[in-house]
Amino acid sequence: MSTEKYNQAKKIIVENDDLVDDFGGASEEIIKKAQLVLGLQFPEDYKLFLSCFGALTFGSIEIYGVFREDFENSGVPDAVWATLNERKLVKMPKHLVIIYNSGMGEMYCMNYKDLNSNNEPKITSYFPGFYEDAQKNEVLYDSFGEFLLDMVNEEIN
């Protein structure tokens, strides 16, 4: 479990606190409940993100996370709410967890059917409303940490 890229991203986030709007860290109990509700185990780098930030707006980007226990009555940027909502609305597969909305119809998801060398989900694309057969689930990042590092670097450059 490599958290190196997550730690690099966190350093940039902390150094640019004028761009930060976070929800405060999620408790271990809320993180466990989120995993139970989704039926998945989060990778270590995402759990670190959740315990530190909950969810995060960094400049113009919004990274979905977990910040309240009432997932059913939450909203964006709650990853559990967004994922459950898409599962209901468009029958999004249960192996995907939404972490980012590009604003162009594409969702970035942790994909538990496409794992990296640490046996953690890669970040892949998902287009709600398209049949599963039509989804390419293009790999965008090897890990959540890599995704977060790229996003924060893009925002400050």
UniProtKB/TrEMBL annotation:
Pfam families: SUKH_5
SMART domains linked to this entry: SMI1_KNR4
Domain Knr4/Smi1-like: 25-150
InterPro entries for the chain: Knr4/Smi1-like_dom (IPR018958), Knr4/Smi1-like_sf (IPR037883)
SUPFAM superfamilies: SMI1/KNR4-like
Tree of life domain: Bacteria
Protein name: Cell wall assembly/cell proliferation coordinating protein
Organism: Enterococcus silesiacus
